[in-house]
Each structure stands twice: as C-alpha cells, then as structure tokens.
Write a structure and sequence with these properties.
CATH superfamily of chain C: MetI-like
Number of helices of chain A: 10
CATH superfamily of chain A: MetI-like
Distance between the termini of chain C: 16 Å
Number of domains of chain A: 1
Largest interface: B-C, 65 and 69 residues
Number of strands of chain A: 0
Largest sheet of chain A: none
Order of helices and strands of chain A: HHHHHHHHHH
Radius of gyration of chain A: 22 Å
Radius of gyration of chain C: 24 Å
CATH architecture of chain A: Orthogonal Bundle
Shape of chain C: globular
Oligomer: heterotrimer
Chains: A mainly alpha, B alpha+beta, C mainly alpha
Number of strands of chain C: 0
Structural class of chain C: mainly alpha
Structural class of chain A: mainly alpha
Strand content of chain A: under 5%
CATH class of chain C: Mainly Alpha
CATH architecture of chain C: Orthogonal Bundle
Helix content of chain C: over 70%
Shape of chain A: elongated
Chain lengths: 281, 535, 341
C-alpha cells in the first residue's frame, strides 16, 4: 500500500498536469454538489429587461436572450451534465464489463456472439447511431443516457474481454480452480476485480466523450428539454449569437464543457500512469 | 527542431492559400443575384407529393399562370402584390360570363415554352386537370376556389379556354392566380410520362417544363438551385437579372455574416433578431418588412378535454400570457401586437386584429378561482422544433408566467417531421403555433382554424355552431354590410371563447444589399425574381 | 509468395464482416421505423385530411406490416436500390455517390492537417519526454479533443471569416460564382488539378481549410499520443540501442531508425481516426453548409426520411469494413510477421 502511495506521489510530481486535473476534478465535483445553492440568481428566472447583457459585475458571465444569468445557469448545469455522463458511463461499464469478462473467460460461442454485437455497434457511425436512438425513442435525459451508453459499450466489452482472456490462463486462476472454485466464483472473486483497474482509465476517458456526445445531440435539437440548463444546449443556443457579437452566451458554457472534458481526459491519462506505468503513452 | 520547421512551413504554405481574396469576374456578379436561404426546394413540381414552400417559389418563377395579381405601393414605400386586382399573364384578356358562372380566357399567341413549343389551350387544360388529378395539396388548393372537376376546364380553340364555375365563389378567379394552377408544357411532359405515371410526376420533379421568366439550369437538392433568364418570355417585361443562384445555408448566423460581409445579395425570411439589428441605422444591409397577411402566432388550447374545456381557464391563460416580454424577447418587435385592444367587440371587419387581453395576473388568478382551479394543474406545452427561434423563448416565458397562476407545464419540443402527425392527432393540450392563409379573407382563415369541420389547422378542436354560421354566411355574402357583420360576429365569438389566444402577426423580413431594388411582397411568401434589379 | 495469403486474408475478412453488415441493416431498419413522426402525414402536405394521409401512406408502402416492408427493402437492396429520399426527391444512391466525395475530401484533408501537426508533435514529445514540450503537447492536443466540434467551427467562422475576413464564406465547397470542375474523381482539388485550373484549385482549397482545421483540431490528440507512444517504444528497443551504441548521431537514430519503426502503429491509428472522422463530421458539415453525406443524413433523420438514413448508415458501415480491411492488408504487406498470425 505504501508503495502505491509512493508511486502515486512520484507520478503526480512527474506529471503536474495530472495534479492539475485532480484539482479541477475536485472543483467540478464541488460545483456539481453545491452549484445550485451557490448560484447568485435563479437559473430559470427570466428578466427581459436585462436580456443579452455583456459580462458585468452584476452578471459575471452576462445574460442570455431572456435575461437569465449565465453564471448561475452554467453552475447549475454541472450537476445534470455530470449525472448524464456518469450514468451513461456506469451503464455501459456494468453491462460491457460483465459481457466482456464472460466472453473472455468462457470463450466459444458466447465470446463470438458478444464480439459480433460489439462489431456491429462499431460498424455504425457512432454519433449517428446515438442520434437515431434519441430521435426514435424521444427527447429525454434517460434516452440520451441510453444512447450514450450504447455507443460506448463496445469499448468496455473489448477491454474486459482482452483482460479476462489473458487472466484466464494466469497461474493464480489455475490455483483457485484447483482449490475447487466454480466458474461463477472465480469470475466474481478473481477475474472481475482484476479487470477493474484498466477499465478505470476507459471510464475516465469516456466521461469526457459522453459529455461531448450529449452536447452534440443538443446542438441538433435532440437534447434536454428547455428551460433546464445544460452546457450543450446553452452552447447550441448561444451559437447563433456568436456572429452578432454576443459571444458570452456560447463561450462560458462552452468553456465549462471544455474544462470538464479536458479534466476527464487528463485524469484518464493520469490514472493510466498510476495503474499501469508500463503502458504509459 | 528540423521537423518543427518543416511542419511550420507546411502550415504556412497551406495558410497562404487562404489569404488571397476570392476573385470572380465582375460582370458575372453584376448580372447574377446570390440569395441565401435556410431551405431549398425539394421538387421542381408544385403538384408533387410533399413539395415544400421553396418549391412554390420555383413554380412561381419558372411557370406562368393565366393571370397574376397587380402591384401596389404600400404606405411605407415598399411594393406588394394587390389582391384586389388581377392582371394578364399567359392570358392576354378574359371575360366573365354575364351569369357569373364561367370565364373565357384568350391566350397570348406569341407565348412559348422554354423548349420553343407554343403555349396552347390544350396545355392549360392538361395543367389544370393535373392539379386536380395529383391529389393532396394542389387539389385542395384548387377546391378552395371551387375548381373541383376536370369538366370545368373547356378548350374552345387553340388559344381560348373557358372555365366553368359550379357556383358563384369570390375565391375562384383569385385562386387561378396562385402558384398551383401553373401552366405546364403538356407535350413535353407527356413524352416523359409512363403508364404507371401518366402525369409525369417523376420526371417533372427534377425537370421544369414551363414557360416562365426563368429556367432552371442546375439543381442540387439540399445545396443550390441556379436559374437563368428565359429571354423568350412574353408574359411581362423582361426581368433584369440574368442569373439567380439560391444557396441553402442552414445556419442563420452564417446567412447573416454573408449578408453583412456583402457576399450574398439577399436573404429571405430573416430571423427577427437579425432583422431588428440589420434594420438599425448604419447597417450595411436593407431590411424590407411586411406583416404577413392573414397570419397569427397563437397559443392554442385543446377545448375537448379538461381543464381547457372550461372557457374561464382559457381566459385565465389569456390574461396570464406575458405579451410584452414575448414581443421583446421572442419577436424583437418584428410583429404586430394582437393584444391589448379596448374591447372584444371588433370595430372593423379585418383580420388579424387585436383581442382585448393583456397581462393581468390578478385577473388570471381570479378567473382560475372562478373556474374552481385555484390549486392549478399540470400540463404539457408543445411547439414545433422547426419554429424554435420564436417558439422556444415564447414557451419559456409562457411556462414561467403560467406557473404564477398555478399551471405547471412541461415543455415538449416536437421535431418538424412529427409536428404534422401530432397536429393531426389533436391530442396536445397546449401549443404555440403559427398559421397563415394564402387568400387574404378573414372567413378563409376562420374556415380552416375555427370551423366545426375541424380541419387539421383547427388545432384546438373547437366546435361552435354559432360561429360556424357566421363563417358559412360570410363565404357567400354578396352584401358588404352583411358581410362585415358576419365577420365581426365570428371574430367577437373567437375573442370571447378564446380557444386560441393570438399573440402577434409576424413580419416577413427580407434582407438585401443596398444596391438591390424591385423587391415585391407576395402572399406565397416566396421571392419573385422577375422584378429584382442590381445596380 | 506473399500474394496468396493476402488474397486469403481479404476473402476471410470480407466473409467475417458479413454478419456485422447484416446486423447493421437490421438495426437501422428497425431504428428508422421507430422514428417518431409519420412520413405520410409529413408528405401529405399542409391541409391534409386523415384520408389523404392514408392515401399517401399506401403510396409509400407504409400500410404494410414491418416484415413485409423489410422484405421489400431487402429485395430492393439486392438490386442495388437504396430507395428514394422524400425530402430531396432523389434516389438515395445517386445522392450518396454525389455527396460522398465532398465528405471524403474534407475528411482526408482534415486528417492530413492533423497528421502534419500531430506526428511531429508526438515525435518531439517522445524525444523530450517529460520536458515542457511533452506537457504542452499533451495539453494542446487534449484541449483540442475536449472542444465540441460545432463550437470550434463556429468560433473559427466568427474569427477568420466574419472578423478578419481571411477565410471565404462558409457556403459549401466553392465560391457560389465559381463553377465546379468537370467531375472525374469528385474531389475538387484533384479535379481542378486535372483541369489545370489553378484559380479553381485555390478557391476550393480555401473553402476546405476552415472545416478541415475544425476537424483536425479534434483528432490531433490520438495521433500525437500514438506517435509519442510508438516512438518511445522504438527508442527503447534493442536495435535503437544498438544503433546508438554504434555511435550514430542522435538525429540519425531518432529520425532514420526509430521514426520509421514507429510509423506502423501510427498508420493504424490514422485509419481508425479516419473512420471516426467520417462519422463525426456530420456536425462540421452542418456548421459549414458542407454538401456531404453527413449533413444529408441529419436532415433526413429529422424529417423521418427512412431511405437516406438507411443508405447513409450502410455506406458508412461498408466504408468502415473496407477501411479496416485495407489497414490489415497494408499491415501484412509491410510487416510479414503479421501475415503469419
């Protein structure tokens, strides 16, 4: 354990960006937890008298078309965006890791079937598949989560399958089997816990991707319902104001979006260094 | 370091291609008009299944009708069509029979289609027959003017056609000058017809067989359509512009940038915010605005189901709507207010006109209480995603305002494709929508939107025999006084019962460079290239 | 001798891809039928009565049950008929063929830009591992991949077109006053070169630059990352150590030996990135009014227009399979050890 901490400290020292990412992550989590309470204004309250105002002391990030305070909206949106990304990634992680783990461990027909499913999903243009799912099932947060989970699924299946098929022949598994462990027991106690570290990296990278994906869906009009604040929708709405010089409407939620995705991407890299220094890229 | 400098050099050389200004022959630009619109035509045939609005514009410029409308100058100085005046187009003259039950049209002898074939009475009959036979929208539009059966169109000789009227309908003659009864080159079309497709629908979708002032030289659906002037056009003065390029630019921001930078000459139906800002003094671009005739934006309530079956609840909504906020933040003032009149008894027989509602939350709350709804209720507020520019801010403001009187709403954006079928189902409790009628008659508007026949545009499923009686009477009235009384009658009932609350009559805002002149407003809201000029 | 196994590989791979393709066909069919909205109501026109809608439904063959519709779709597919788009009124296959070059040209050019920046960046980062260059490179590329493409696109338009006036108007592949070169490949750059029209070449390059940069920014990260990793592996491998021990200059070691060996995985990444971009460019095409297949698919999806969506997805799936095949074959040709596996 001590060695682990030492290694972590070493990695963080060597890589200031990872330290920065951890700090950023902590900040964003705080924002998701308390953003709603800390927001200076009601994120839904319109005030057309102050519509489209540039950033000022009263409104640090300016106001939008309906005079809503953008800072408050950006802060409040953190929770929803995190929730979407987290639940989508959790969903695809759970399903993908179980399927992939089983496929790698048992091999044979089950492995082929799971592999084919992953291949079929991968053969789709992924963003278009997500669009299709949301368009077909309807605009709702649940469907955005589902669509994002589906398009991420193959990545988890593949990672889990590879890891599990390597572990299958590992000596300690052999030992567990000789000790009389059944397949289910071996899978649950020995294989599954051991594929978690490499999956963590995938999760972190995917969180960023999930947020971007939801934003892209919003941009086409397949996102969260108004007036709920969500970064992607806010950028999409603000996009038409960029040309007319009201840059703040899109810029601040866009910056928040970027910062969050950026944070997850850096974190993914950092985690990779921590967990598996050899594979560092 | 060397790789670095190679990369830098590569980037620089690519970028340098970027810095030269675009060059195009100056005279080509002078004779060409570049228009950027949100959406292009999906067919060159207005009779075709699913032809969209820009396709009406193609029909208008590439085909001729028997007659067209006159023009007038509006008080603001801009030009508009004159719906009281019909003028010759392919027909050089016509005569309505003394009994008022037919009209005889004399065709221009020198008129030729784009391929050089002369325009004959046969072509007129074939085209009008086709408008009926193709069904759907064109047949419906013909029927709106009592043009119902092919037997009504009679060829008298090569250049004479008689059209019989089953009844005296004041819409018949005007209906012959809308884009639908365009005259097709029947011989050319028949050559491209098949036994399965006797009206050549497949061929005409992609080819223009007309004799109008412009020919289609290239059409890339979803991208661009290019028109070229037909120099043999005889139905009016030869247009000034030789070439018209219409590009689809879906992003409103890009369209605005193109206009402001002088790269595009014109853009149709500019979003209100851009129109408001471009119309300001010092702008490089001209904005010509016109309230769209017979059009309203409204909040509609489904009167079949509770709670909106209660007129008190509907009136409460009408008093809760934050009209001025919507006017400022959704319409940017680019619309005529349809609220705040002194009385719900109309003073004149015109439509649209304001109702006597205004934002008064106390009154709205009182009405909710009278209706036994002081605890409020929950409902869904829907609108068409395709109209989000105006509908979405309106919906958010409305949602906020309704919450004050206890009505909790969930906003439902419905994609354009689904909107039609959602309207057909008639099960949305509360909507924000827009309707406009081509023919500028109040009874025409009310026939589609309030009449008990319950057409798809009667989005509230409102049925009231008393109101129907006024509408039916107004359609047939010949006495001006009686007509005015009937029109006022149905407007008063609509205001009192408020199944739909009018908010505003929108403007059609057209942006153009300062060197463009000759723009004329048309009821079909599509550009007419024939009058445009570039200096 | 190398010939035969390559053909065998191709055949096996194609056969192996068939089940995925079949899956794509079935899933797309079901998904498009589940789209809300009723094309019949959409196309029956503004004032349609329910009867008129039924009539159109029959006309479109939508009154049949799903299985019958699917069989009909399959038999049409077998004849190479992808159906007709209702929104543009054109056969889907023609439109896809017309629009595919636009998408491919944009994607390839974007990829080229990304590679030109990202590969040197990756090499630098590897040779100066953990230096500030390494961190800055990681920072920049990660920032790029963190930006939503539509946002980058709009920002670039605002700055380079609207504010500075350097870039041409974001109106598709060519200045509206210019006419397209005679179609040979459908790639405007190549076609204008073939036509020896320099003006047209610069014109189309200019139109291409902003959307291509938008895409390049987004995909620089995986390329730079992979180059760095491959370089690190190559630099620490035995033969590099040997060459270094032989006293060759650092430059020769890095660029002549290590880079060459590192290129193999980079090529694979290029292929993956390419297929990813081809799918991701729907948003870029929308922002730049680019007449590619992505923009076409989005519009069709919103209009519940089945045929183009199905055609688009199928085309993409086939492209994806072919691309992977090409990469595999290239790999086995470049590196004989792979063919043996």
């Amino acid at each position: 354990m001590n060695a682990m901490f030492k290694h972590a400290r070493y990695v963080l020292q060597e890589n200031p960006l990872t330290l920065f990412a951890f700090g950023l992550f902590f900040f964003l989590v705080l924002l998701a937890a308390f953003g709603q309470v800390l927001a200076p204004y009601d994120p839904l309250a319109s005030d057309t008298a102050v519509a489209l105002q540039a950033p000022s002391l009263a409104h640090w990030f300016g106001t939008d078309q309906l005079g809503r305070d953008i800072l408050s909206r950006v802060m409040t949106a953190t929770r929803l965006d995190f929730a979407i990304a987290l639940s989508a990634v959790a969903l695809s992680f759970i399903i993908g890791s179980v399927l992939g783990c089983g496929a790698g461990f048992f091999g044979g027909g089950f492995e082929r079937a799971v592999g084919r499913t992953a291949d079929t999903i991968m053969a789709f243009p992924l963003f278009v598949l997500a669009m299709g799912i949301v368009a077909a099932l309807g605009n709702s947060v649940a469907n955005i989560v589902l669509a994002t989970a589906v398009i991420n699924l193959p990545f988890y299946i593949r990672v889990a399958r590879t890891e599990a098929s390597v572990l299958r022949n590992a000596e300690f598994i052999e030992a567990a089997r000789l000790a009389g462990g059944g397949n289910a027991r071996i899978l649950a106690l020995h294989i599954y816990p051991n594929i978690l570290p490499p999956m963590m990296v995938q999760i972190s990278l995917n969180m960023g991707w999930a947020i971007l994906n939801a934003a892209g869906l919003s941009f086409i009009g397949l996102g969260v319902r108004p007036p709920t604040p969500e970064w992607g929708i806010m950028v999409a709405e603000g996009a038409s104001y960029i040309i007319t010089g009201e840059w703040w409407i899109a810029l601040f939620p866009g910056a928040a979006l970027m910062l969050a995705v950026f944070c997850f991407n850096l974190l993914g890299d950092g985690l990779r260094d921590l967990i598996d220094p050899r594979r560092r890229t | 370091m060397r790789i670095n400098s190679i990369a830098a050099a590569l980037i620089a050389s690519t970028l340098s291609a970027f810095f030269y200004p675009a060059a195009a022959p100056a005279d080509a630009r002078q004779e060409t008009l570049l228009i950027v619109n949100e959406l292009g035509p999906n067919s060159l045939d207005i009779h075709g299944v699913g032809a969209n609005r820009p396709a009406y514009g193609v029909a208008w410029n590439c085909y001729d009708r028997l007659m067209t409308y006159g023009k007038l100058t509006l008080p603001g100085g801009s030009a508009s069509y004159d719906y009281n005046k019909l003028e010759p187009e392919l027909a050089e003259s016509w005569q309505v029979a003394p009994d008022g039950l037919s009209a005889t049209f004399k065709l221009r002898k020198d008129a030729r289609f784009h391929d050089g074939a002369p325009v004959t009475a046969k072509d007129v009959k074939w085209s009008l027959d086709r408008a009926l036979a193709m069904g759907g929208f064109p047949a419906f539009q013909m029927k709106a003017g009592s043009l119902e059966k092919p037997e009504q169109f009679v060829v008298l000789d090569e250049h004479t056609v008689r059209i019989d009227f089953p009844r005296k309908d004041k819409m018949t003659m005007p209906d012959l000058a809308v884009p639908v009864p365009s005259i097709y080159n029947s011989e050319l079309a028949k050559k491209n017809a098949t036994p399965d497709d006797p009206w050549a629908a497949n061929w005409l979708k992609n080819n223009c067989a007309g004799g109008g002032a412009y020919k289609v030289t290239s059409w890339k659906p979803g991208q661009e359509i290019v028109f070229e002037r037909y120099d043999g056009w005889k139905s009016g003065p030869l247009p000034k512009m030789k070439r018209i390029i219409v590009r689809d630019v879906p992003s409103a921001g890009n369209r605005r940038a193109l206009l402001e930078r002088g790269d595009a000459d014109m853009s149709y139906d500019v979003p209100p915010k851009d129109a408001q800002e471009l119309a300001k003094a010092g702008s490089k671009v001209n904005i010509v605005s016109q309230p769209v005739e017979n059009a309203t934006w409204y909040v509609g309530m489904n009167v079949v189901n509770p709670p909106f079956n209660n007129p008190k609840v509907r009136q409460a909504v009408a008093y809760a709507i934050p009209y001025d906020k919507i006017m400022d933040s959704a319409f940017y003032g680019r619309a005529v207010k349809l609220y705040g009149a002194t009385s719900n008894e109309p003073a004149s027989a015109v439509w649209p006109q304001p109702f006597a509602y205004r934002t008064d939350v106390a009154k709205a709350k009182a009405l909710m209480k009278e209706a036994g709804m002081e605890n409020g209720f929950e409902t869904t507020l829907s609108f068409d995603l395709g109209q989000a520019t105006i509908s979405e801010p309106t919906a958010i403001l409305l949602q906020e305002a309704l919450a004050q009187i206890g009505i909790k709403t969930t906003i439902n954006k419905i994609p354009g494709a689904n909107w039609r079928s959602a309207l057909l189902k008639k099960d949305m409790p509360l909507i924000i929508n827009r309707f406009s009628g081509w023919l500028n008659y109040p009874e025409y508007f009310f026939y589609w939107t309030y009449h008990g026949q319950n057409a798809v545009f009667n989005t509230m499923s409102y049925q009231n025999p008393a109101l129907d009686k006024f509408i039916d009477a107004a359609r047939l009235d010949t006495d001006a006084k009686k007509y005015a009384a009937d029109v006022k009658g149905f407007i008063a009932l609509a205001a009192q019962d408020v199944p739909r609350v009018p908010i505003a009559q929108p403007y059609l805002d057209v942006a153009m460079q300062k060197n463009i002149s000759g723009y004329t407003y048309w009821f079909h809201l599509q550009p007419d290239y024939r009058q445009l000029e570039k200096k | 001798m190398a010939r035969k196994p390559v053909w065998g590989t191709i055949f096996r791979r194609l056969l192996g891809a068939l089940p995925s393709l079949a899956g794509v066909v079935v899933v797309t069919f079901i998904l498009t039928r589940a789209l809300p909205g009723d094309p019949a109501a959409f196309f029956a026109g503004a004032a349609a009565t329910p009867e008129a809608v039924e009539e159109v439904r029959k006309q479109l063959g939508l009154d049949k049950n799903l299985a019958q519709q699917f069989l009909r779709y399959l038999s049409e597919l077998a004849h190479g008929d992808l159906g007709q788009s209702l929104t543009t009124g054109q056969p889907v296959s023609t439109e896809l063929v017309n629009r595919l070059p636009a998408s491919l040209e944009l994607t390839l050019f974007g990829l080229l830009l990304a590679a030109v920046v990202a590969i040197p960046l990756g090499v630098l980062a590897a040779t100066r591992r953990d230096s500030w260059i390494d961190h800055v490179s990681r920072l920049i590329t990660t920032a790029g991949v963190s930006l939503p493409v539509f946002f980058t696109g709009l920002l670039l338009i605002y700055i380079f077109y609207f504010k500075l006036g350097w870039a041409p108007s974001p109106m598709g592949r060519l200045d509206p006053y210019a006419s397209a070169p005679a179609t040979v490949t459908g790639f405007f750059i190549i076609d204008s070169l073939l036509a020896r029209d320099l003006g047209l070449l610069t014109a189309s390059l200019k139109q291409l630059l902003l959307p291509a940069i938008t895409m390049a920014i987004f995909v620089m990260a995986p390329l730079a990352r992979m180059t760095r990793a491959a370089m690190l592996t190559a630099l620490s491998s035995d033969y590099t150590r040997t060459t270094r021990a032989m006293g060759l200059s650092r430059y020769t070691v890095v660029y002549r030996y290590a880079l060459r060996n590192a290129l193999l995985p980079v090529v694979t990444t290029l292929g993956m990135v390419f297929s990813f971009m081809l799918g991701a460019n729907v948003l870029v095409e929308k922002v730049f009014s680019w007449p590619g297949i992505g923009a076409y698919a989005i519009e069709a999806l919103v209009a519940s227009d089945y045929a183009p969506v199905q055609g688009f997805v199928l085309t993409m799936a086939i492209l994806y399979v072919l691309l992977n095949l090409v990469i595999d074959v290239l790999y086995s040709i470049i590196d004989p050890r792979m063919a043996a596996q």
